[in-house]
């Protein structure tokens, strides 16, 4: 009597181990993708809110005077604000102070007792915003805006010679660059910059 051996089919131990490893790697990659997608799904909303905050701060700063209206090196203040509303744009320039000596915030600021320590609601020129660090968005009167406490706003006014725009120089009191950085507690950051000229 002859015996017929039927060829068996199935997986060997090595094939089984390789299949388990491949499935484990694929499953891990998929779960990581799902976690990252879920974690970052709110990110566009956070970035858009940060962008809106940065635009609001930038607009507020751009509407301010170029440099301190109290700064008047030649003491020719006119009692009538309609005929002589401010001396800063007239006096803060290279012709008056010499080339390279008329930076809006460095050279042409009223560095009196209140400069740099005044309340946000009394800011009257762009230089007052230099170094501003708000934890939570704050409106122009100095009041916190509800629901935005997870944002940090940093403002830098650059009036150095490195700032230039179409032949205008920061050192000559002609232009400044305003940088507004908004950072959320999750690490999402938005940065907006603009130039303001002395006119």
Strand proportion: 15-25%
Strand order in the sheet with the most strands: 1-2-5-6
SSE order: HHHHEEEEEE
Radius of gyration: 30 Å
| Unreliable stretches covering 5 or more consecutive residues | 79-83, 111-115
Quick summary:
With about 200 residues, the chain is α+β, with helices and mostly antiparallel strands. The protein has one domain (about 40-195).
Protein architecture, described:
This protein has 199 residues and is of the alpha+beta class. The protein has one domain. It is 28% helix and 17% strand. The chain is built from four helices and six strands; from the N terminus they run ααααββββββ. The strands form two sheets. A four-stranded antiparallel beta sheet has the order 1-2-5-6, covered by helices on one side. Strands 3-4 form a two-stranded antiparallel sheet. Strand 5 and strand 6 form a beta hairpin. The radius of gyration is 30 Å and the shape is elongated. The termini are far apart.
Topology:
Elements: H1 13-40, H2 43-62, H3 88-91, H4 94-97, E1 133-135, E2 151-158, E3 164-165, E4 168-169, E5 175-184, E6 189-197
Antiparallel strand pairs: 1-2, 2-5, 3-4, 5-6
